[in-house]
Amino acid sequence: MPVITFANTKGGAGKTTAVLLLATELARLGFRVSVLDADPQHWITRWHENSQGVFGNRLSVVPYVTMGTIDRQLADEKARADFVLIDLPGSRSSLLAKAVGHSDYVLIPVQGSAMDAQGGANVIELLQYLEDKADIRIRHSVVLTRVNSMVTTRAMHAVKDLLAARRVHLLQTPIIERSAFRDIFGCGGTLYTMDARRVSNLDKAQENARALALEVLQQIPAALRPTGAERLRSVA
């Protein structure tokens, strides 16, 4: 089953938010999803503890993933899940290379800043090294995060120009800055269990998450997609 790793060596890039949005949307579509939580902040684990029963057994979280445990944990979760997502630390670590080596697809969340772009570039350089030195080609994309829907900054243009110059694939769906994406970590549940009277633009947050999941699914080679993925045509 496909392994999708989320990586940026700079913390605060919106990586864990991207993991949570994709995981919950895939589970909502009926897939079995496992998240390996290797981030020392353990935000995904905390969210899951506050969200018991939301998806039944369709979404599970494996906490405390380390260099010594990831091989076994990955093997266990691949045997039971349709998708395995890995949330890596927002720093340089030996776990980055190991997780990327296991991956079918790598998603690199980047904010519109030079520091975030450099953190993403570290991951891209590793992927390029694996291709050049070991002939290991791993499909990957950048997703822009915390984008202001009303403002396009000079820094954002610079990031896009840098990605284009390096011929790095950029998802067409950015993750917009939404209060719902922040609040969900505190209240648990999903974008569909939140109270629209208390969360502004909840419908737009739902649309954003759904579009992100569908675009990511299109990046997974057809041969790796779980059985039944053809039903996605009816919701695309």
From TrEMBL:
What is the top-level taxon of the source organism? Bacteria
Query: Which Pfam families does this one have?
Result: VirC1
Q: What is this protein called?
A: Chromosome partitioning protein
Originating organism: Shinella granuli
Source taxonomy lineage? Answer: Bacteria, Pseudomonadati, Pseudomonadota, Alphaproteobacteria, Hyphomicrobiales
